[in-house]
Amino acid sequence: MDEALMQQSADLAQVQAIGTGAMVVSGLVAVLFIAAQWRIFAKAGQPGWAALIPIYNFMVMSKVGGRSAVFGLTLLIPFVNFVTFVMVSHGISKAFGKGALFTVGQIFVPIVFLPLLAFGDSKYVGVSGYRDHAPAAGGVHPARKAA
Question: N or C end of the chain: smaller count of CB under 10 Å?
């Protein structure tokens, strides 16, 4: 009986060690993502502290990606959030001068691509490349100018 109890205690200690390690790694990843999002916001001229506020950071991330802040709230709607996430991610890629492949990286390997965007030499260039967004100075969208 004593051997079984000792084995059970050893097994429990191993499970606790694995759980503690997983919590530490998860915490470090969360800190990395918060720091990356803070830096991305700051590069885009938005308040970095917005990365700490759960729903507000969706709204700010949407604005950085060239969408309205309210558009970011659609990340709270199941199934719609997948499409919204892709659109916002692509907008952020374009706003930092990156292409569609960078968007794919942001979606599938964010632990690599978000820090690259945040701590790399990427500059926020805005979303002026979008044809559906704000008009150029003078109030007339370049695509709608009369020839």
Answer: C
Assigned domain for 43 exists = yes
* Per-residue model confidence as pLDDT tens digits over 7-62: 788 788 888 889 899 999 999 999 999 999 999 999 999 999 999 999 999 999 99
Contact by Cβ (8 Å): 92, 64: yes
Under 8 Å between Cβ of 91 and 127 = yes
Distances in Å between the Cα of 84 and the Cα atoms of 6, 34, 35 are: 52, 20, 22
pTM of the model: 0.78
pLDDT higher at 119 or 131: 119
Region class of 131: left (phi > 0), else alpha (psi between -120 and 50), else beta: alpha
Total domains, the chain: 1
Residue 144 lies in a domain: no
